[in-house]
Amino acid sequence: MEYDLELDKAVERIRSENAKTVCIQLPAGLKPKAAEIQHYIEKKTGATVLIWAGSCFGSCDLPLQVERLGVDLLIHWGHVQWH
Fold it and tell me: Which fold has domain 7-76?
């Protein structure tokens, strides 16, 4: 199954926030695409992208510990569009 990850929307948000360090959180099913996502975003924005390797059980499972890492922006992907 292919997902539309809307990477260009993520790039736009990173640029608009002027984020220099970005954390990406993915559910287990999307983690195999982590390196691809990281490289794309870094190439398009110049930001440093960290991949959150911890568990992710849905949109309410945000990694609050990223604040200690000095992350400017957290981007959370899921399998279903969130309105």
Answer: Rossmann fold (3.40.50)
